[in-house]
Amino acid sequence: MSQSLNLANLANLPSGVAKPRYGRGELKAGILHVGVGNFHRAHQAVYLDDLFNAGKDLDWALIGAGIRIGDRAMRQALEPQDWLTTVVELEPGANIARVTGAMVDFVPVNEDGTAIVTALDDPALRIVSLTVTEGGYCIDPATGSFNPDHPDIVYDAAHMNAPKGVFGVLLAALKRRHDAGKAPFTVMSCDNIPHNGQVARDAVAGLADLVDPALAAYVREQVAFPNSMVDRITPATTDRERTILAERFGIKDNWPVFCEPFRQWVLEDKFPTGRPALEDVGVTFTPHVAAFELMKLRILNGGHATIAYPAGLLGIHFVHDAMADPLVRGFLDKLEVEEIIPCVPPVPGVDLREYYQLIARRFANPDVGDTIPRLAQDGSNRQPKFILPSTRDRLKAGADVTGLALESALWCRYCAGTTDTGEAFRLDDPNASRLTPAALAAKDNPASFLDLRDIFGDIADAPQFRSRFETSLSSLWRDGTRATLQRYLSGNI
């Protein structure tokens, strides 16, 4: 019989499950985290749990926060279990479960962010960390720059007393601290965005430009926004994971996290008001974050995009099954080695070919149960960050883009909303209402999709890319995904 997860039941959990070696009463909050999802609980919260288990820096515990409906659901799930989370690391034949306790509270999730602003009055909260997804930073996809006309920014600029967007909340809290003579908190982005600290600063300061130029100057001059690179494959939680946890480990957890064993965190050391000693638990502090970040975004995240769309069109559900398909795996290998990796600058101490082989092994882990729909979602935000920058670099260098153009064509074909066998599926993308019509029109006129200039930008004007894209898309509609991949692998596309 499984035990419900909460502080009172910790001692009753099976002996094979690792539990916190510190007491909740020993902890004090030092970090407020916005966006408490699976990745955060499998990554940052685990590093902090390791640190606390070593008896170090117990004044850097987490308070959760959020402003979306999903954040409300997470809070409701975690509250009955005293903010504890079960994390299961999935290695074939050696799955390991642990309970983490680094979170001590969760700010109520209301219609606006005033509760978070109030919580951040506490000067003990010296870091605000973020996992708000790639699409949450109010960026113009085509330029990669802050978009002051984004609806969330426009709203918050006019409603700073009750902001609803994350950057309005941060700016309102920083203003209150400034007005009260308190030191600002550090803003630490943990999202998969190039130069994520700079992007977060641009969003907060860009919003401040619309509200008060003096406040904008304060943000740019006094608030720290360290860049970071984060990595751990963490699938969504379903009843499958809850059932496995109950049956295999004897724990009833409302929202457990299943993840791969590998994790990595590379961080810029810019924390004027202090930070936990995360280097003691494996975090790499370096001024060269950008090099690690670019490597990961192009090779790992770009690799996810590479397999997502052909696998989705072929009706493959799990990532490890996609990696077992010779055509999908062959497409990934060829594209990475011939077009993506050559665009990645050297990274200190890293062999890029070996890094890719590690990535491929991670993708193929059958116990993780990562899904193709998860990788395929939000393509309109992910393509401009993970795929199109490699395309642009190769075009500038006069290099071939056959594989990258095929990847873009596969995304276009996927956006049409049907598999190769005609099975319909829901396109999980905030821009689905315009992507699908454009993708369907592109069946006869490929330029219809490339005319999404906020996504493709000037890449759409490159003759080589347009030609390769049109050839690939025509092949996908005429002959299907398998025949097109086979043609690419044999050098005939």
How many distinct beta strands? 13
Task: Give the amount of beta strand, in percent.
Answer: 5-15%
Separation, N- and C-terminal Cα atoms: 57 Å
Helix content estimate = 40-55%
Report the C-alpha radius of gyration, rounded: 23 Å
Shape descriptor reads: globular
Going across the biggest sheet, name each strand in turn: 6-3-2-7-8
Whole-number mean pLDDT: 96
Give me the secondary-structure category: alpha/beta
How would you sum up the major sheet?
5 strands, parallel
Low-confidence stretches: none
Q: Give the helix tally.
A: 22
Short précis:
Helices cover 46% and strands 10% of the residues. The protein has helices at residues 38-42, 44-53, 69-78, 114-119, 151-158, 166-179, 196-211, 213-222, 239-249, 289-313, 319-324, 326-340, 352-363, 372-376, 379-386, 388-396, 402-415, 432-441, 447-450, 453-456, 463-479, 481-489, and strands at residues 3-4, 29-34, 61-65, 85-89, 96-100, 103-106, 127-130, 186-189, 228-231, 251-252, 257-259, 264-267, 284-285. The strands form four sheets. It has a five-stranded parallel β-sheet. Strands 5-4-11 form a three-stranded mixed β-sheet, with helices on both faces. The chain has a three-stranded mixed β-sheet with strand order 9-12-13, with helices on one face.
